[in-house]
Amino acid sequence: MTGRVWKYGNNVDTDGIIPARYLNTSEPAALARHCLADLDPSFAAGVRPGDVIVAGANFGCGSSREHAPLAIKACGVCLVVASSFARIFFRNAINIGLPLLEAPEAAAEIQSGDSLEFDDQSGVLTNRTTGRTWTGRPFPVFLREIIEAGGLVELTRRRLAGEEVRRP
């Protein structure tokens, strides 16, 4: 995965990710149009498939709604790197197939506009702008299966249909 960085601070909550006034739908494309609308009005119009969000501590705090990671994924963001994640956001993101990486040192050093590359099998994150690398923990196989299938529901659907599920 390779993408351009959008950098945010600590305690970005689910209302900051997708403001409550846009929660009258769970349609991914509609949520994507309003992703980070109050925090960064330029984000939804400027984000491109493969881009990366980098943030400080406690990213995704607030409510337990799945709309927040769904809005991020629907924008085409391929990875969220943060110093730490709210527990329920972390699980919701994995369940819908949005990869997350907890990497405090990387999150502190990476800047908006940097280009990042992430190898989810080795856990290596490389800042292509500065040449700096960090090694995080790679996802366990069962989490990579969920992410690569596009989420827990899709993985379960494939298994119930008897389809072969690719092992990462």
H-E order: EHHHEHEHEHEEEHH
Residue ranges: pLDDT <50 for 5 or more in a row?
A: none
The CATH superfamily of the domain at 2-112 is Aconitase, domain 4
Under CATH at level 1, the class of the domain at 2-112 stands as: Alpha Beta
Structure characterization notes:
The chain is an alpha/beta fold and 168 residues long. It has a domain at 2-112: Alpha-Beta Barrel (Aconitase, domain 4), CATH 3.20.19. Helix content is 33%, strand content 17%. It contains 8 helices and 7 strands, in the order E-H-H-H-E-H-E-H-E-H-E-E-E-H-H. It has a 7-stranded mixed sheet. Helix 4 (67-74) packs across helix 5 (87-96). The longest helix has 10 residues, at 87-96. It is globular and about 45 Å long. The chain starts with a strand and ends in an 8-residue tail after the last helix. The mean pLDDT is 93.
In short:
The protein has 168 residues and is an alpha/beta fold. It has helices at 14-17, 28-32, 43-46, 67-74, 87-96, 104-109, 141-149, 152-160; strands at residues 2-7, 52-55, 79-82, 100-102, 115-119, 124-127, 133-135.
Question: Key features?
Answer:
168 residues, alpha/beta, seven-stranded mixed beta sheet
Please outline the helices and strands.
Blueprint: E1 2-7, H1 14-17, H2 28-32, H3 43-46, E2 52-55, H4 67-74, E3 79-82, H5 87-96, E4 100-102, H6 104-109, E5 115-119, E6 124-127, E7 133-135, H7 141-149, H8 152-160
Parallel strand pairs: 1-2, 2-3, 3-4
Antiparallel strand pairs: 1-5, 5-6, 6-7
